[in-house]
TrEMBL record, chain A:
Lineage: Bacteria, Pseudomonadati, Pseudomonadota, Alphaproteobacteria, Sphingomonadales
Species whose genome carries this gene: Alteripontixanthobacter maritimus
GO BP, sorted A to Z: purine nucleobase catabolic process; pyrimidine nucleotide biosynthetic process
Keywords, sorted A to Z: Hydrolase, Pyrimidine biosynthesis
Name of the gene this protein is made from: ura4
PANTHER family: ALLANTOINASE
Major enzyme class: hydrolase
Name of this chain's protein: Dihydroorotase
TrEMBL record, chain B:
Gene from which the chain derives: pyrB
Entry protein name: Aspartate carbamoyltransferase
GO CC annotation terms, alphabetical: cytosol
Ligand binding (L-aspartate): K108, R198, R252
Principal EC category: transferase
Length: 410, 345
């Protein structure tokens, strides 16, 4: 679906890399043609932003399902898809198919499985999957336990200049844990793993990445100790980036009280101190991006005893509002909040999007940052309403979304 | 939760004096000790006394629950707890039905929620659940309309075990002439596989609520993180922990819940953590010995200690179990039975 006529969005607060600019943005032939003090040309369609924020379309780094209604509700125009699919994204043909699956109004960037079947034993055909459209390599929901294989993977990825996205939890320590060890897990009698399981994995993966010269992205860094390791690695120039999902800066393990399985996440919710550390990490740039980790689960996966339930949350719809809460809490400003959701993931994926600049893909969201709403699992666009934020008031909603200059849902 | 305004004065005997009605026992279910107030625990213990007396009489029968159906749904194997609940229900005149996981649709892939809905449709008046997963009983309680009693869920709670332990302890202390309305100042040592033990968790909550000084002892791998926050002190040296203990409660190694190696061997465990006669001498001279059973003799406890007639109250725990469970079934079904003061809840 191509843009039929140029579109000029007027009366906008444009969120650019240089901060917020007041003006308009013109989208033509699927690209950003001009922005700033521009006015609509004859024949242009016009859209009045009514003074709201105009940002790049959100780029969600690491979803587990192409759940288009939920992604669009959240203002997401591109999503990196984790390889944990059925079937797994460990063959070029599957990657190729997935890369085309969301078009035209949602672009999906597959992340290739690092190892065959994500078993952590044999390297998958990463080079061929790159040719088929993979924008990165991921270990999926699991950690590669064998350090030898991890090193070979990182060296291979460095050769191909592909980012390796890891799940950082030492599997031996985690075992069948469903919670972070501590008072709450003990009170609930839930199998717990020490928070240090994350730091151990992060330390190893950073060491191997530095040995190999690979680009390493740790998909979720959720503990103070692991954040300190990432901070130190960055300070010595290592090519390490870190992400997080809103649950880990919004919630702590206290929320697992009552065995609410929507709080069953991987990694599990952490202590309040770790939650605060994540917020500090977002503020000081240790954390590079925020992703939804969108993983809708039906009742058959969640209406189970806590430890038996599948981990994961439907996060696409609450990604923006959760991140904007960091602005109200003065952790970051609007420009940085939007960068966490747009330019940072775009850079990691190597796509021409995520920034309001001339020549970029015309993926644009209009956001009312103050619009209040209440999360309701029964009324979500997601294919399953397993949100840990059920019933929680939120602020900030996308009021219009454009992909390649064409309004989504129009 | 109950407001403290209606609490009877401290030290009183609660049964009979405790106000009936909405404030008496405001819980539909018995899911865990963690949800009970101190006076509610004492209330249940006092209520159990009438059933202790009945069970010791020749009649052993009441029609209190006549016409009611109690389902014991045990998703995890149990002998003594199931039998105890079954006898409790039958002595109260209820129709008691036992459902074993081995014969249930759960084995055919039915979800726990579906099973709960099915049980609910059969119009049970009370459902007793044992399940291998922490929180499973909560999940069932949300799906049914009748009172649910937790007979043990994973490593979470086993509330009736803690209550019966308290009842047995109270009886033993009273026989010695100690008032024992509560356990203020009593030093209780719980030793064994604390990590996997729902009995330990419920007992920590129950005993600390009643004022006891609770000590826990286990090898580090069998001691859960953060347990001190529940009000107990932690030891890894059994001899140190035993020093002056008034009560020694031994727990079984729950090897069925251990995924991986937690201790080098049962032999070594006994060497370091087994309750022997020599070790018992470190405790108070009249220290009582408890064990929720089943015992691994020669592992966590020596036979000559387990069978000490003047010190071991292990069989008394079993006896009190029936009475305490009768009390719980009685109290939780009072509203449905329309008993005055309870029906308006």
């Amino acid at each position: 679906m191509k843009q039929a006529a140029p579109l000029t969005i007027t009366n906008a607060q444009l969120v650019t890399p240089n901060g917020i600019e007041y003006g308009a943005i013109r989208l033509a032939e699927g690209r950003i043609a001009a922005l700033g003090a521009v006015s609509a040309a004859p024949g242009d369609h016009a859209h009045d932003a009514r003074g709201k924020l105009v940002t790049p379309g959100l780029i969600d780094f690491g979803v587990f399902a192409i759940d288009k209604p939920a992604l669009h509700f959240g203002g997401i125009t591109r999503a990196a898809l984790m390889p944990d699919q059925s079937p797994m994204l460990d063959l070029p043909s599957r990657v190729s198919y997935i890369a085309k699956s969301g078009k035209p109004d949602l672009w999906v960037h597959p992340l290739a499985a690092a190892t065959r079947g994500l078993e952590g034993a044999e390297l998958a055909e990463i080079g061929l999957m790159r040719e088929a459209g993979a924008r990165g390599i991921a270990t999926g929901r699991r950690w590669i336990a064998d350090s030898g294989i991890m090193l070979r993977l990182l060296r291979y990825a460095a050769m191909l200049d592909m980012v390796v996205v890891t799940h950082a939890e030492d599997g031996g320590l985690v075992g069948d844990a469903a919670a972070t060890s501590g008072e709450m897990a003990t009170r609930l009698g839930l199998p717990g793993a020490p928070a240090e399981a994350e730091a151990l994995a992060v330390a190893r993966d950073i060491a191997l990445a530095e040995m190999s010269g690979a680009r390493l992205h740790i998909r979720q860094v959720t503990t103070r100790a692991a954040l300190d390791l990432v901070r130190a690695a960055k300070s010595r120039g290592a090519a390490v980036t870190a992400g997080v999902t809103p649950a880990h800066f919004m919630l702590s393990d206290l929320e697992t009280q009552g065995f609410r399985t929507f709080m069953r996440l991987s990694p599990p919710l952490r202590s309040e101190d770790d939650r605060q550390a994540v917020r500090e990490g977002i503020a000081d740039g240790t954390i590079d991006l925020i992703a939804s980790g969108h993983d809708p689960r039906g009742p058959e996966d969640k209406r189970l005893p806590f430890a038996d339930a599948e981990p994961g949350m439907a996060g696409a719809e609450t990604l923006l509002a959760s991140t904007l809460s960091l602005v109200r809490d003065e952790v970051v400003d609007h420009a940085r909040a939007i960068a966490l959701l747009t330019s940072a993931p775009a850079a990691l994926l190597g796509v021409e999007a995520g920034v309001l600049a001339t020549g970029m893909e015309a993926d644009v969201a209009i956001i009312d940052p103050d619009k209040p709403w209440i999360v309701d699992t029964d009324r979500m666009a997601a294919s399953a309403g397993n949100t840990p934020f059920d019933g929680q008031p939120m602020q900030g909603r996308v009021t219009a979304l454009f992909k390649g200059g064409v309004q989504v849902g129009d | 939760m109950t407001s403290s305004d209606n609490m009877p004065p401290a030290g009183s005997h609660y049964a009979g004096k405790y106000p009936a009605g909405r404030q008496a026992f405001p819980h539909r279910d018995l899911l865990g000790i963690g949800r009970l107030e101190r006076h509610e625990i004492l209330f249940l213990l006092d209520e159990a006394q009438q059933w202790v007396d009945l069970n010791r009489s020749s009649a052993k029968h009441s029609d209190a629950l006549a016409g009611l159906t109690v389902i014991n749904a045990f998703f995890e194997n149990s002998t003594r707890t199931l039998l105890s609940f079954e006898i409790a229900g039958k002595r109260l005149g209820a129709d008691v039905v036992n459902m074993h996981a081995a014969t249930s649709s759960v084995k055919k892939g039915e979800t726990l929620i579906d099973t709960a809905i099915t049980l609910n449709a059969m119009r049970a008046d009370a459902i007793v659940i044992r399940h291998g997963s922490s929180g499973a009983v909560d999940l069932i309680a949300q799906a049914v309309d009748c009172p649910v009693l937790n007979a043990g869920d994973g490593s979470h709670e086993h509330p009736t075990q803690a209550l019966l332990d308290a009842l047995a302890l109270r009886h033993a202390l009273r026989e010695r002439g100690e008032p024992a309305d509560d356990f203020t100042g009593l030093k209780v040592l719980i030793c064994g596989d604390i990590l996997h033990s729902r009995v330990a968790r419920s007992n920590i909550l129950c005993l600390t609520a009643l004022g006891a000084d609770v000590r826990l002892c286990a090898p580090p791998a069998l001691m859960p993180d953060g347990v001190e926050a529940m009000g107990a002190s932690v030891f890894h040296n059994f001899e140190t922990a035993l020093d002056g203990a008034d009560v020694v409660m031994m727990l079984r190694l729950q090897t069925e819940r251990m995924n991986g190696q937690f201790i080098p061997s049962p032999r070594e465990y006994h060497y370091l953590f087994g309750l022997t006669k020599a070790r018992l001498a470190l405790a108070a001279s009249d220290a009582l010995i408890m064990h929720p059973g089943p015992m691994n003799r020669g592992v966590e406890i020596d036979s000559e200690v387990a069978d000490l007639l003047d010190r071991s109250i292990i069989t008394r725990q079993v006896e009190m179990g029936v009475a305490l469970r009768m009390a719980c079934l009685d109290v939780l079904t009072r509203k449905a039975r329309g008993i005055e003061g309870w029906a308006s809840q």
